[in-house]
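Below is a filled-in request sheet from our internal design queue. Each sheet records the structural input a requester submitted and the sequence that came back. We keep these sheets so that new team members can see what a complete request looks like end to end.

REQUESTER: design group, bay 2
PRIORITY: normal
MODE: inverse folding
CHAIN LENGTH: 97
BACKBONE (tokenized):
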């Protein structure tokens, strides 16, 4: 029984030390500072595959009369006063009970 408890304590300390080293020493899950050749190859392959997609956009809508007749309906927001500097300060003439 005593050896099981000792083994459990030792295993817990080892797991705790590994977790501390991984998360707090800064050598764990960090991206590398240099760009490897495989990342450049992956980016090049991604761009090649994007260009092969059969997607095209019809931009004739921007020259359509109905599109050009659209009107901007934005509403101007008028500036308002900011209010009291200290909303919890007592108001002059009114006393707290």
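RETURNED SEQUENCE:
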């Amino acid at each position: 029984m005593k050896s099981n408890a000792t083994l459990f304590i030792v295993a817990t300390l080892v797991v705790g030390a590994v977790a501390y080293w991984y998360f707090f020493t800064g050598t764990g899950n960090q991206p590398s500072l240099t760009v490897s050749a495989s990342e450049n190859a992956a980016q090049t392959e991604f761009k090649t595959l994007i260009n092969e997609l059969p997607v095209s956009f019809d931009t004739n809508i921007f020259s359509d009369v109905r599109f050009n007749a659209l009107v901007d309906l934005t509403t101007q927001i008028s500036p308002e006063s900011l209010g009291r500097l200290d909303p919890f300060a007592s108001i002059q003439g009114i006393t707290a009970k």
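SHEET NOTES:
- The radius of gyration is 33 Å.
- The helical segments are 2-24, 37-52, 65-68.
FILED BY: M.R.
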